[in-house]
Amino acid sequence: MSGDVLFPAETPGGTATSVFPALEALLPQVSKPVQYVGGEGNSQVADDATWDATDVRWALLYPDAYEVGLPNQGVQILYEVLNERADALAERCYSVWPDLEAKMREAGVPAFTVDAHRPIGAFDVLGVSFSTELGYTNLLTTLDLAGTPIHAADRDESHPVVVAGGHAAFNPEPVADFVDVAALGDGEEVVGDITDVVAAWKREGRPGGRRELLLRLAATPGCYVPVLYDVSYGEDGAIAAVTPVDERVPATVQKRTTIELDEWPYPKAPLVPLAETVHERASVEIFRGCTRGCRFCQAGMITRPVRERSLQGIGEMVDSSVRASGFDEVGLLSLSSADHSEIAEITKGLADRYEGSNTSLSLPSTRVDAFNIDLAKEISRNGRRSGLTFAPEGGSERIRRVINKMVSEEDLIRTVSEAFAQGWRQVKLYFMVGLPTEEDEDVLEIAGMAHRVIKAGREASGRNDVRCTISIGGFVPKPHTPFQWAAQCHPDVVDDRLRKLRAAVNTDRKIGRNIGMRYHDGQPSLIEGLLARGDRRVGAVIERVWREGGRFDGWSEHFSYERWCDAAAAELEPRGVSLAWFTTRDRGREEVLPWDHLDSGLERDWLWDDWREALEGREQDDCRWTPCFDCGVCPSTGTDIEVGPSGTTLIPLSVVNPTAQSDLPAQG
Description:
Blueprint: H1 20-24, H2 48-53, E1 56-62, H3 66-69, H4 73-83, E2 88-94, H5 98-107, E3 125-129, H6 136-146, E4 161-165, E5 181-183, H7 190-203, H8 209-218, E6 223-224, E7 229-233, E8 239-244, E9 253-254, E10 282-285, E11 287-288, H9 298-302, E12 307-308, H10 311-325, E13 329-333, H11 343-354, E14 360-362, H12 373-379, E15 388-393, H13 397-403, H14 409-421, E16 426-433, H15 440-461, E17 467-474, H16 491-505, H17 509-512, E18 515-519, H18 522-533, H19 539-547, H20 561-572, H21 579-583, E19 598-599, H22 604-615, H23 633-637
Parallel strand pairs: 1-2, 1-3, 3-4, 4-5, 9-19, 10-13, 13-14, 15-16, 16-17, 17-18
Antiparallel strand pairs: 5-6, 7-8, 11-12
Helix pairs in contact: 6-19, 11-12, 14-15, 15-16, 16-18, 19-20
């Protein structure tokens, strides 16, 4: 699949004819055809008259399979926000599996949206949400199938503006050749600003062509336009300078931060899939940001400061989601949901409200030191008692100090013992391998911790059927974290430690049989590391991998380590760098990092100091409850940490119908 088959794109602004008649003939020949037909509950389909009357049309792409992409909270939020505007509309698209891709190329069917099956090339803007860097090759597939040149420099005003967002957009340099704009930070407000810019440019008759539009977007806060920056390199292979090419272009781009979350209660009506997806629940984000300071966690760093929703806002969102969707589970989401300052009031209020109904609550992300059995009982009050999940991340106390994840084993054992005593039967523990300064002994202590969990569980419950699953991933250093300077561990070392860990788990067969072990080998993590911390030269590697058949690299059955290594050797070594140069070497303080001109709000000096403290095994407290550590976020974003008490209450519902949630009476 060389990507040489292109499809003519309809000019944005004209009526886009549905491709479904041609697509329908292909669906019986591919796996899971239902994922391509649309028609989900709460989806929005604009008719041709609305299309013609709308100023700006967005296609929102999640570059992964439908089953992963449909539940994505970010896409659902932007889908609703844009469709509420009178001058905009949004439709969704997901990556098609290789079997359908081949059929589409044979039949000349272009990439399409699942809502109205319009060609993606007919839209004004293609918004791409990257949750992981391993989705980059899927973007190229979609662009090529859409008839849009994969290189931004080859596009004109007839092609959609490709806007990348999500956490990976905080270093978009590896895909700088392929995207027109990277939107940094929260998306709720910036998509409106982008819409305004595109609408004004179109009304004025597209003056200055595509370049003028890009210059206007570059002047929009939070928008980074790679083509408007020149990058030069030194003799050592590192970046020498990143320079704007026009005086209208800012030297640095600062992220966008949505401050008052209660003003953005989205999604109000979650999509209800027709095909099976990885999460089938209503999800309500109860707060955004984290100040725990885990040094490996990019999400916790780039989403600062903490902003909590009020109890009333959360209650209204839960009620709206349940009514609109009919889902029987509501997930209370954040990076660490039990850290909400009013989590006890939230869970008790919601449990009271929905007691006796078929609506249950889940808390997908919790920390041991923020968790208690009372909280667990409220979450499981409706009779659902699934396993408890915690993330110590490191097996030894020493390595947990390095990563600033100060979860003591004593706290963990005490918590799981009480849970097992109260009737829980299984616990899952998440760890990482390949952390900075890690030795074999740090990893082997994971086995000891799992053994002690089983022993404590048997003693507390009086039963032998308690289980512990340890789930292990390879550590990938990420931009805008203290570990952005760290050398990544080589896959051979990671895999060797995993083999030793498995042997250690099974040293005591009577206990080991109650311990499950799930892990990912180190090879995909190394490629993720290349894409996470790469610069523009890595774009040639991505393109070569794609042209040689790379698709769905986040899926083990499609990922080829050999293909990535061969492409890296072919494209990077003539440029004086290598796969190892981007991954397994330490960076120095003075080296210009590819993302230094993109401002997440964190002071570079603060990140460096925290990196040095990590190497010394020194922890840092959570600044929500201690004096400020001067990370720089609050002054740069013009806000502050916002936590409760919110001064609001969770208004109860007078009646709950256990069989028809859609008939719930209005709140209040």
